[in-house]
TrEMBL record, chains A, B:
Keywords of this entry: DNA-binding, Transcription, Transcription regulation
The UniProt record lists the keyword Aminoacyl-tRNA synthetase: no
SMART domains: HTH_GNTR (SM00345), UTRA (SM00866)
Gene3D superfamilies per record: Chorismate lyase-like (3.40.1410.10), Winged helix-like DNA-binding domain superfamily/Winged helix DNA-binding domain (1.10.10.10)
Protein name: UTRA domain-containing protein
Superkingdom classification of source: Bacteria
Pfam families (alphabetical): GntR, UTRA
A GO MF label: DNA binding
Keyword DNA-binding: yes
Organism: Sphingomonas tagetis
Domain HTH gntR-type intervals: 3-71
Amino acid sequence: MSLPLHERIRREIEADILAGTLPPGARLPTELELMARHGCARMTVSKALSALATAGLVDRRKRAGSFVARPKVHSMVLDIPDLAVEVERRGQRYRYELLHRTVRAADPASPVEAALAGTGELLRIEGVHHADDRPLAVEDRLISLAAVPEIRAVDFGLISPGAWLLGHVPWTEAELRVAAVAAEGEAAARLDRPAGTACLAVERRTWRGADGITWVRQLLSGSDFDLVASFGPTRAG
Amino acid sequence: MSLPLHERIRREIEADILAGTLPPGARLPTELELMARHGCARMTVSKALSALATAGLVDRRKRAGSFVARPKVHSMVLDIPDLAVEVERRGQRYRYELLHRTVRAADPASPVEAALAGTGELLRIEGVHHADDRPLAVEDRLISLAAVPEIRAVDFGLISPGAWLLGHVPWTEAELRVAAVAAEGEAAARLDRPAGTACLAVERRTWRGADGITWVRQLLSGSDFDLVASFGPTRAG
DNA sequence: CAGTGGTCTAGACCACTGA
DNA sequence: CAGTGGTCTAGACCACTGA
């Protein structure tokens, strides 16, 4: 244990948040309680909590206390639109059409599935995003049921899997892969576009700590869509 | 002045870095000097410097001092490949072909140009990126000469504008826009692809503080390319 | 080996805000 | 109005490392 004390305290709390022991909205111990627990000065616990606040994992409010932040850890860094929000911002009506929904074990021969869920169970969801009943994107998604067990009960006739996950599961790491492809066959038909139409293929993986949450591949119809990302240094304070 | 003292100190140093008064590699005042200058305790200046280090603007080394970081502010957040690096990683030979190079005043009627350079001068550079003499991407770039005057003297037969900027100019904010388009006409011909080929159109703007540095639009040939971005929370310490 | 940053203490006063 | 976090002080000891 050559790690500084403030860093050990920070990691202990972070681990509880990522494990879900401290769920979004939960109140953390006060600085006074953490001082007593670790037998240290207030500046030391303050440094640990401030680092968590800077990283976006914790909200600190005077008189009220420190709380686990609601899932929006990523919002300062990445602004890939939730399709529903984006469609409604254009004044169109959004609808998610569920095509298939299956639960099965992860295939150990598939690198994607093994990395996501090991040998655990997967929820696979296929669907189409519509704007004013015009198809905008086809989506193929895998979700690790070990990481998100409560998703079994969700009705995806009412909300898309992406929107549900965004509101319920905090993520800490993500990888995004974007390419241009020509829509072919079934995908082109589902998008109601001629074969050969230039589409954006977006592949995204999301983790909470070391645990995979979801893998998703979307094919976005033609040049209907821009993906926009903004980047800047993290501001302290 | 209701800002905390540590935050005022942080901003003062950040402003000097962004203005270029403190160029990359320059040594900052020591904590002792900053204490004397601001008449405060060491913890206060330490907080300001630590925040700058966490944001990636400053490197701190024991015994040596604190230094303005070399331009790599963004590397933790965004990994959009420098095309030259990416091509060489595949074991191919990279070449940048300069097509046009002109200097002119920014057009106030163009929102892009006005936002980049106000009424100042622009360097416009058009070129093609090649891998093993096969065209990979066409690029159209604008650079604000007020922000980067030393670029007038650079020979882009030897290095691409993007690689030069990456090595010489630190940026703090960036916006990236990605869409799928079908290559047509001149662009398709320069990429040596049939019209209608699905391509990635990448548009990117970069700032240093409030000053625009560059705007660039690249058309990446077919599915030769993935763009990959990784995201995670900033770690303190 | 001396100067620098890294960490930590044991206090203090204050600003804010929800019970 | 009392509890919480925000800031700041004036020290201390230590680890590291380049002159």
